[in-house]
Each structure stands twice: as C-alpha cells, then as structure tokens.
Design goal:
Chains A, B, C: It comes from Schumannella soli. 3 copies of one chain form a homotrimer. By secondary structure, chain A is α/β, with parallel strands linked by helices. Chain A has one domain: RutC-like (60s Ribosomal Protein L30, Chain: A, 2-Layer Sandwich), CATH 3.30.1330.40. Helix content of chain A is 25%, strand content 18%. Chain A has a 5-stranded mixed β-sheet with strand order 1-2-7-5-6, covered by helices on one side. In chain A, β1 and β2 form a beta hairpin. In chain A, α3 packs across α4. Chain A is globular and about 45 Å long. Chain A starts with 39 loop residues before the first helix and ends with a strand. At the B-C interface, α3, β5, α4 and β6 of B face β1 and β5 of C.
Chain lengths: 220, 220, 220
C-alpha cells in the first residue's frame, strides 16, 4: 500500500502518450490529470497563473494548501489540454472535473482489477491498496479544480463524487475503496468536503487503472 | 417480484455495516440510503426537521407525499451521514443524490447480476425483478432529496437520472430495468418528473446490489 | 469503419422498439436518441419548432449547423419522448442529455464489446470503429441539445462529456474511443467545445451498443 507521503507529487513531467490522431495509439490514451512534458508551454499559456508551478521550492499559498501540507500532501501538476478536453471546466459557480486516474509522477502505481482477496497472486489489486489509489485520484482531481479557479480556498462545497472501480465481478466493496477519495475530501475541506457520492464497479478503466474519480465542486 | 406495496418502508432502522476505518470491512461498505439505527441521534442532529420521522403513525404532510401514499408508497428513512459523504447535497437550486441501492428496511431484497433469462436457476436476477428494485432505489433517492430540502413539494423538475445495472455481459435490457425508476418519477411528479437519463450495464455494484440509481433534481 | 459522411442522418424514422409496459420487451428497450416513426405526432407536439424537420430539403439555419454542414454532417432527428424520460432537459442555463447510443437511421451500425484486437474474427468491435461510433453518439447528443434549446448557436460551452465504452475486460483504450466524441465537439464549437470528460469501460450497454455518450452543455 502506498505511503500517503508519496501521494503528492509536485510537478515532474511525464512522457506524452501521444494518444491523439493515431489509431495505433488508441490503446494507450490517457485521461485528464497526466503530466505532459512536451506540452509544458501549452500549459503555461492555457492554465491560470496559479496552475504554473516551480519545483520543490514552490510555496504553500492558501488555507487549503496549508491543510494539504499538514497531511503531507502537495497538489500534483495537472496535464496540459489534450485533444478537445481538459482537466476541469467551470460553469456558473460549479467546477466539473474530468475523470482522474491515480497518476503519481505521470505513471500509474498499479494496474488491474480490484478483488476481494488479492493476496494469492491472482493478479488482482487489493481493496486497501485501491483505497489509497482513490485518495491519489482525488488529489489529482483537486489539482484539476485548482487549475481552473486558481485556489482551492475558493471551494465552498464538494457537491458530488463519482468513483469508478475496475472490479473483479466478485468484488463488491466499491464504497470502501472510494472512501479513500471521500476521506481525503473531508480531511481537506472539513464540512465543505462532505458530498453526495456514487460508487460503481466497472469492467475496465483507461490504461487498466484500478480506480477513476470525478468531482463536481461549488466555488465562490 | 416484490409487491409495490412492499417498496415503501417507513422508518425501521437497520444494522450499521460499520464500513469505515477497518480495512477488513471494505467488502461490506454501503451507500447513502441505508437506515442506520446506531446513528439515529446523529441523524436527528444533522438532517432538517422534515427528515426526522416517527413510526408508522407518521402523517402525510405534502402534495407529493399524498401522491406517494396514493401509490401505496411512503418515503423510507434515510441513512445518517457515513464517512465523508451523505445521501444528498444541494448547490444553487439543484439536489445531487448519492447513488441509491434498493434497500428495503436496511437490507437488499436480492443480490447478483441481472440476466436476460433468470428462470433457469443460473443465479441471475430477472429483468422484471430488477425493474422493481430500480423503483425502490428511486424511492430511496426521493427520501434522500427530501432529507435536504424538507419537502418533495419543492421539486420543480427531475433533471437527470443515471441508472447502473449490474449486468451479465449478455444482458442488454438496461433501459427496461431503469424504467422502474423513470416510471415512478413520472407517477409521483407528473410532467416535472420527466427527465434525461442514462442507463448502463456495469460489472458489479456495492454489496452485489443489482441496481443503483442517482438523481439530479431542481427545486424552488 | 464508417465514413463520416454517413454519420449525419437527416430524419428517417425507425421502428419503435415498444419497450414500455411489457415485461417481455425489457430486453429491447432503447435510449433517448432513437427516431420513432409511430410517435412523430407526439414529437411535433412536444418539441420546439426548431426540432421539427422536413426531409433532405431542410435548410441550414445557424452558424453551428453551417459548421456541421462543412463537416459533412447534419443533425439527426431526435426521438419522441418515451416512458418518463426524454432526450434532454434544461435547468438554469444547463442542458443535461440522456445517454446517447450511436444510432444511424434508427439502427445501431454495430453491436458488441470493444476489443484491442478485433481483426481476428473474435466478435469484438475494433477501437477505431468504436471511435467513429462515439462521434455518431455525440452528434445524436447535439440533436438532443438542439431539441430543447432550439439552436446550437445558443451553446456557450460544452461542460462535461461522459463516455461509456462496452469493453472486453482486456481493452484499456477507452479514451481513444471517446476522442471520437471529443474531437467532434471541438470541430463543431471550437474553444467552446473543450470540455471535462470521463471515459470508462462498462460490462455491457443497452441493445449491446458499443458506446454511449452523455453531455452537460451550457447555453445562453
């Protein structure tokens, strides 16, 4: 199970899966929160100032970021826009995020389906590990939120979380897995982090990720 | 197939699956609409007055509740908040509910995947039974809505329904199953109950439930 | 792989799967965007003027429709309301669509699960074909949007896309498939078409469709 201290990854960039336009690449296309070295200039142009980050020397600027730091977490870099979608969009006072995978430094810490008993070398991801990945995916989702509203201090309520768990058909503990996301949001935002939620078990996720988390967040 | 008269469960409480904090319990974590005897004081503190209910003697107070009564239904109790999520959240004039399972008196009436031909002892849930469970899940979702806006009479439109059907891979009748939810909403709200909807077949749902239903509802 | 020029289907109507009310029909129930010959009068009564269309002689009336025409596309007919749900609903300045299948002239161009290597006669749908179907489903979703706001010229932003891909458990290229929808939205709306997105692989979809796409769109 990953250490929580490993879940916040400042801003190292990852290789670009180059999933657009080439049918041969359909199988390795990613989702919103991948870091993307080759498009860093695009990111600097497109994302607000607050989303542009230096290295490990980056300061902690807000109330919520201070709380994240107290949890041993920092917001990871968000991916540059790829294809015709981006990590998050605002409408009115809501932010909708793209589905976020548990990328750490641009790579998935594990792949495969989540199973109830993953100790026997059956190739399944253990539920408690998947819970940690859901926490990572939620952290990536917060980075996506911050990229469009500038500061997480503007968040007034986490409205909705949808958690998809790539599941062995016999695994029915999706809520326990997605608690990894829910608990992080509670720790970070307090009462404002208490949300409505759906957790479902799906056949397979992009890049064979074990979990995917999306948010609807209200901001002021 | 459950009798419609059985689908409305006033307020008996169910055992708490205690799914938080204990990795051993990951497999039995539940979703929003479970009744929860052990946290009834918490519920009384956190939910609005209208959500606090007495026993079978509870009166029918509103226009929509009267319509439910005419359908032989009463709103079930909603679960107390568990972990960092709750049955429903409002933002602006919208209510987002958590995904609701077809709990009746805190227990699932059936578990397993839905299949096209469930008569042969293959362990699958029949589509017509699953349709009744979708109706129950939608009723639980209405209880979740009421818990945050006080009265269903304030509902001006059911905006969106997403219905997840735990499906045998050969079963393609998800819309017919989720019609159980859609038809209830039409019966209860009339034109205001006519909604946009997505129905999908997923690998597995929490607690091995056959269906899960979530709502976005507009209120005044 | 279907030719893009085939993806826009003006308005020929399809047979009604008659999926309501008859438990025997649960297996063939459809989703929002089916054309429906038998209810054309219902459509004319219920949908706004702009949604009522003539045959091939229909004129191109708006900026966005002109752009669609430049792409070789025309908006297909939307289905009449079936059961208690409809192709799209507005709340405030948002449109929520129903999940849209890749119907062309009321029929699915292919059925089955999407697989990574579909050349070997294994019955799977090829990823590049599925990408084309996602484009078709997105076009159907635009028709659903137009049916409730009268003109796509009113769209100010595509906020969110959720793409469900019926997936062989070994297929992990869902983002590449849903790029078919994302790229269409970018081509049609430019910057306003750049959205947040989730792509997931599900066990099975209604009518054994390979993809299903839903939208949240902001309009003025």
């Amino acid at each position: 199970m990953p250490n929580d201290a490993d879940l916040g990854i400042p801003d190292d960039a990852a290789p670009d899966p180059q999933h657009d336009g080439d049918p041969q690449q359909l199988g390795i296309a990613g989702l919103g929160a991948r870091a993307d070295r080759h498009r860093s200039r695009g990111r600097a142009r497109r994302l607000p100032e607050a989303a542009r980050r230096g290295g490990g020397s980056r300061g902690v600027s807000g109330r919520i970021e201070a709380r994240l730091a107290g949890l041993g977490l920092t917001l990871p870099a968000v991916a540059a826009p790829v294809a015709a979608y981006i990590p998050a969009v605002t409408t009115g006072n809501l932010v909708y995020t793209s589905g976020q995978l548990p990328f750490i430094d641009g790579a998935l810490p594990a792949t495969g389906k989540v199973g109830a008993d993953a100790a026997g070398g059956d190739g399944l991801v253990a539920a408690e590990d998947a819970k940690a990945y859901a926490r990572t995916a939620a952290l990536n989702a917060l980075a996506a939120v911050e990229s469009v509203i500038g500061s997480l201090d503007r968040v007034t309520r986490v409205v909705k979380v949808v958690g998809f768990v790539a599941s062995d058909p016999a695994f029915t503990g999706q809520p326990g897995v997605i608690n990894g996301a829910s608990e992080l949001l509670g720790e970070v935002f307090g009462d404002a982090g208490i949300h409505a939620r759906s957790a479902v078990g799906v056949a397979v996720l992009p890049l064979d990720a074990p979990v995917e988390v999306e948010l609807v967040v209200e901001f002021a």
